[in-house]
């Protein structure tokens, strides 16, 4: 792990439960995660792995039945879990921003783009004309042509890719320290996806913010991110520099994920590779490793004892961590 002073966000031992009719659903368990200043950290995993709960815990907008049972979430040196609602409200949209998956549900269809971009600057003391100019400048930065006149247009007058660019412009308008990108390219075609990735790289470099990038697309993570975090059923099973994790994955789940990536398939096939089995019931967790029921390398120890997290690359500047009994032998 990096030093706390090197990170814009540091999460330690975070566990979150949801109260359900079946009992307590343990959505996140003992999560440790750092987002270094000026870096892009990607999070990958199947649906149900805890990515959405992780995001909601960071921005502190959790469901009514959610309960944080342990942990800390330090953002710029302050614990978000103990912060007052007023202080949290002042951070959202200013020091931390979020871009959602579907821009069509993010932008208000009955308000012009200009009004929406000006309205979110309500805490800024600048004049309305200055705010509009700032909005136009930000639209130009994300590649929207003739930005000043397009402030007067409505969301439906833009393509899906341009709407996502506008959403990113709105999120970065206040130059936040942390941008959370929640699968921002999933609703776009492959060509637009590449454009958005390149644009995010340029904006992150120019603004200097950190990015937490959530995605199912391993190729996007490999292209965009400095570090990758692999989640499975509410736990982080592997994390480290993208080049190391993708080149030499240590956890069986990470290995299976990479095998399922269509880009890794060398020969034509009718059936795409899948990971057999299902995610375990998070209301009734197994005694041992969370991945045991689907693991092709499991041993008796895996079914009885929970593995501990340890560093694969001892002494390296950027550590590669894995939570697996096989790698501790």
Structural account:
The longest helix is centred in the middle third of the chain and has 18 residues, at 190-207. This protein starts with 6 loop residues before the first strand and ends in a 6-residue tail after the last strand. The protein has 12 helices and 12 strands. The mean pLDDT is 91. Helix 5 (128-141) crosses helix 7 (160-172). It has 2 domains: 4-95 and 177-278, P-loop containing nucleotide triphosphate hydrolases (Rossmann fold); 107-175, no CATH class. With 329 residues, it is an alpha/beta fold. The chain has helices at 51-59, 85-91, 103-106, 113-119, 128-141, 147-150, 160-172, 190-207, 218-224, 242-247, 252-260, 300-304, and strands at residues 7-20, 23-36, 40-44, 66-75, 78-79, 96-99, 178-182, 210-214, 227-232, 235-241, 309-311, 321-323. The strands form 2 sheets. The chain has an 8-stranded mixed sheet, with helices on both faces. It has a 4-stranded antiparallel sheet with strand order 2-1-4-5, covered by helices on one side. 31% of the residues lie in helices and 24% in strands. The radius of gyration is 21 Å and the shape is globular.
């Amino acid at each position: 792990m990096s030093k706390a002073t090197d990170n814009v966000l540091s999460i330690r031992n975070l566990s979150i439960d949801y109260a359900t009719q079946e009992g307590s659903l343990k959505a996140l368990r003992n999560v440790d995660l750092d987002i270094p200043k000026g870096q892009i950290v990607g999070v990958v995993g199947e649906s149900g792995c805890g990515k959405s709960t992780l995001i909601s815990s960071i921005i502190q907008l959790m469901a009514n039945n959610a309960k944080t049972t342990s942990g800390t979430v330090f953002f710029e040196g302050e614990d978000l879990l103990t912060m007052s609602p007023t202080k949290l409200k002042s951070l959202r949209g200013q020091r931390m921003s979020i871009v959602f998956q579907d821009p069509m549900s993010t932008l208000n269809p009955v308000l012009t783009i200009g009004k929406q971009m000006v309205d979110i600057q309500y805490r800024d003391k600048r004049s309305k004309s200055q705010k509009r100019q700032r909005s136009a400048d930000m639209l130009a930065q994300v590649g929207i042509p003739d930005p000043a006149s397009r402030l007067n247009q409505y969301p439906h007058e833009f393509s899906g890719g341009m709407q996502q660019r506008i959403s990113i412009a709105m999120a970065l308008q206040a130059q936040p320290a942390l941008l959370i990108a929640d699968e921002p390219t999933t609703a776009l075609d492959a060509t637009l996806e590449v454009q958005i990735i390149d644009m995010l790289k340029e904006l992150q470099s120019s603004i200097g913010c950190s990015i937490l990038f959530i995605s199912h697309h391993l190729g996007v993570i490999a292209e965009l991110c400095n570090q990758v975090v692999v989640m499975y059923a509410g736990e982080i099973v592997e994390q480290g520099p993208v080049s190391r994790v993708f080149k030499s994955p240590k956890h069986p789940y990470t290995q299976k994920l990479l095998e399922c990536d269509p880009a890794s398939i060398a020969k034509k096939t009718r059936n795409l590779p899948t990971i057999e089995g299902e995610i375990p019931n998070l209301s009734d967790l197994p005694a041992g490793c969370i991945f045991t029921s689907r693991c092709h390398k499991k041993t008796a120890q895996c079914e009885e004892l929970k593995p501990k997290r340890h560093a694969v690359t001892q002494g390296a500047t950027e550590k590669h961590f894995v939570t697996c009994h096989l790698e501790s032998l």
